[in-house]
Design goal:
There is one protein chain. Helices cover about 45% and strands about 15% of the residues. By secondary structure, the protein is an alpha+beta fold. It has two domains: about 35 residues; about 120 residues, Haem-degrading domain (Beta-Lactamase, 2-Layer Sandwich).
Length: about 180
């Protein structure tokens, strides 16, 4: 057990050291990492036909089942590919303030074609400009729903920790094939 912990510590410190060396050389050269031009556009999954009510309800039911399994009362929202609310469930005991947050997470995931965890990671990395974009929410728990390589909607969960919200959303998203 101790060997595993030490191995993890050494690997992590090695990665951090390598990352630090890279950022120092970039900074000393005067280059801004945001100036890099990727070969392909990230998060470019096309939009598809909006999710049907039947599929949206199935995603919510799977999410609620996962939340019940853990005893996490949540709010769960599903939007279509245009970020319009299709269905919503507030589980018994879920906090009221998270109703709007679950919808916001779903809308942001659909509009920006990415999981809201990406925005959270950007903020943690100090890329605070992400907060200037309209309708962004930098908290995990919003996941695009993809069918046949096209976004048909998104699911958003709120009411627990971000990691718990994300686990429940993933269960809902898994119903879309």
């Amino acid at each position: 057990m101790k060997l595993r912990i030490w191995t993890a510590v050494l690997l992590t410190s090695g990665l951090l050291g390598a990352g630090g060396a890279n950022s120092q050389s970039t900074t000393s050269a005067g280059l801004n990492p945001l100036d890099a031009v990727p070969e392909k556009m990230p998060f470019s999954t096309p939009y598809g036909t909006p999710i049907s009510l039947e599929k949206a309800q199935a995603a919510v039911q799977a999410a609620v089942a996962e939340a019940n399994k853990h005893g996490w009362p949540l709010n769960v929202a599903v939007v279509d590919s245009g970020a319009n609310l299709v269905t919503f469930v507030r589980m018994d005991g879920a906090q009221i303030g998270s109703i709007a947050i679950s919808e916001h997470k779903a809308r942001a995931a659909a509009k920006y074609r990415r999981a809201t965890k990406v925005f959270e990671e950007f903020m943690q990395q100090g890329r605070n400009y992400i907060g200037t974009l309209d309708d962004v929410i930098a908290s995990r728990g919003g996941i695009p729903l993809v069918e046949d390589n096209k976004i048909i909607g998104a699911i958003g969960c709120s009411g627990a920790t971000g990691s718990q919200d994300e686990v429940v959303c993933m269960a809902g998203a898994a119903t879309i094939k």
